[in-house]
Amino acid sequence: MAQYSEALDGTALDGVFAALADPTRREVVRRLGRGPMSVGDLARGFPMTLPSFMKHVRTLEANGLIRTAKSGRVRTCALRRDRLALVDDWLAEQRRAWESRTDRLEQFVTDPEEHQS
Amino acid sequence: MAQYSEALDGTALDGVFAALADPTRREVVRRLGRGPMSVGDLARGFPMTLPSFMKHVRTLEANGLIRTAKSGRVRTCALRRDRLALVDDWLAEQRRAWESRTDRLEQFVTDPEEHQS
DNA sequence: GCAATACTTAGCCTCATGGCACAGTATTCG
DNA sequence: CGAATACTGTGCCATGAGGCTAAGTATTGC
Questions:
Q1: Which of A10, A76, A109 faces B76 most closely, judged by CB atoms?
Q2: What per-residue confidence (pLDDT) applies to A5?
Q3: How far apart are CA B117 and CA B114, in angstroms?
Q4: Which of A10, A27, A106, B80 is most deeply buried (CB count within 10 A of its CB)?
Q5: Which of B107, B105, B117, B116 is nearest to A70 (CA)?
Q6: Is the CB of residue B49 less than 8 Å from the CB of residue B68?
């Protein structure tokens, strides 16, 4: 329950969205969707040095999007779906809001001249 | 159709996620979910100066999340739901990937010691 | 045990972001 | 017309993000 201490306040969304705002990190998430992988294997194919790549891995972990564990000299990464669900939940909340007020104001700004005050 | 020229390459996600990574901007999106609003009205309640706030508005517009139009001295902002759908689509794609490979590897990194190669 | 492997740490650089103040423009109201 | 309103433009500043190189540590294989 209290498994992820940073996960529960609204602020977590900042980190999750920020983490996903980088194409390298989104690609990592995509690859990990196919299953866990070592840092080295993950890094293959990205046009950057390992230290740079590791920063992305840490960003993803710091924001809870992946989980990593080291065994021997290899660090294995795995996706945490529950964390992506945060984004899903936020989107769902917005959708609920739009749907509750129907399309009354739909084309408002399309022709703003007719509406001022 | 070709209404929004920046919207169509994969790179658009960078901007959309980045735009949503800020709590001020997410709140703006949330408020606009209730209907269009002027910049001044939107800005009310945020602890920052108007020029600072305007930067957020422009970021949101630059990344297609809102649409704005000026009428007289008032600029009115409205949400663009289609753009948030980009996020939704990306998430859906990830989910499809997880679901296609069932939970065979589910608890891999939970106990990494038992698995190394 | 020595070498290769797989990260990891440290330090540096550049650019982008988010905030500010202050001054300017354009509408609208009296 | 003059003042108030609602942005808008400019320039500055501090921080953080994302990249690099170079050197270090810990495992594993020969």
A1: A109
A2: 38
A3: 9
A4: B80
A5: B116
A6: no
pLDDT in tens, B7-63: 445 679 999 999 999 999 999 999 999 999 999 999 999 999 999 999 999 999 999
Q: Which residues of B touch A109 (CB under 8 A)?
A: 36, 67-69, 76-78
Q: Distance (Å, rounded) from C-alpha B45 to C-alpha B76?
A: 17
Give the closest-approach CA distance of A63 to chain B in angstroms: 12
The answer to whether B11 faces chain A, any CB pair under 8 Å, is: yes
pTM for the model stands at 0.83
Residue A72 has pLDDT above 50, yes or no: yes
Token couple for A101: 């007020």
State the Cα–Cα distance between residues A37 and A32, nearest whole angstrom.
7
What does the alpha-carbon distance between residue A114 and residue B11 come to, in Å, rounded to a whole number? 36
Q: What distance in Å separates the CA atoms of residue A64 and residue B26, rounded to the nearest whole number?
A: 20
